[in-house]
Structure prediction request, 384 residues.
Amino acid sequence: MSALNKCHNVADLRLRAKRRLPAPMFHYIDGGADDEWTLRRNTSAFDEYQLVPNYLRNIEHVDLGVNVLGAQLDLPFFLAPTGMSRLFNHEKEPAACRAAHKYGTLYSLSTLATTSLEDVAACSEGPRMFQIYILKDRELTREFVQRCKAASYNALCLTVDTPLAGNRERDLYNGMTMPPKITPRNFFSYGTSLHWLFHLLRDPDFKLANVAHRVDALGKGAMGLIDYVNSQFDRTVTWDDVAWLVDQWDGPFVIKGLQSVADVRRANEVGASAVMVSNHGGRQLDGVPAPVDCIPALRDAIGNDLELIVDGGIRRGTHIIKALALGANACSIGRPYLYGLASGGQAGVERALELLQGELARSMALLGCASVKELDSDHLARVR
Prediction:
């Protein structure tokens, strides 16, 4: 049995990633802001919902497929945008993209990726979404739109919850910089991560491939990621800018980072087609609600006018079931697939997807549902 096959759940992949990565890289994936209350709450909130099964149903075939963001997916979850995959494995973003395509789901590429959006598009024919930040260089935003159209991206996703970086104290304690910098304080951690260190020496290129030609702040040397975000991200972005971007794209458009009814209604007014209900994995404002807890109120307020995607805290197939039953159209995963990427490149991402797919199909059958389309609030009860 291979080492990856000995990982039987996302928690196992997390432990393997922790063993293989230098501490700054692992804690960058794993950490949150301030006291990390929101980080923990994102997952623990699922425990407040019980599943209510119905038996004596024909569940010989279980259909996990959904139509979301204008694409038909084989799974009701997809890979969320996450920055700088080169930090975690030398196979980088293409490994995750190819794994997503193999499992019939969508891959999201971040503005802060270490592979260009064109190179990612060339590595897979599967559905793709590009996640955009509006940087101080506004012309770069126009360029992104045109490049995504030319590379046939299916959807565009604007992240709005990062006008400045959250207080990610683990990054401060561990000396997390981009590109990575080995110091006396973290030398032992790097020195014991031999697989990662070998590929660092073999390929030390960590540039932010989609922005380096215009915003090469990292070319001056290693920089703390909090410092980079605070120096490059535009704090003047408003709903008028969102409306302009929706018009420029003219396709499936997602706003990522909303949680309030007022903001989701405004997203509908400016022409968005979907909202990723997200708190940035607990990495921005600590003390905000878990995304799964937001769904009932948002669905009641917006009806079926927008697709709602739960982004954050998912570690089990049953978490996906609960989110869908509460009214989400789909879910997205970030940390689970990054743990897989750190554990074994593309094969590790495939293992993460395989585990969640298996848990989801098995739990659906045990719940008495032959299709995710059957899931609704009747399949849930609140823990009292």
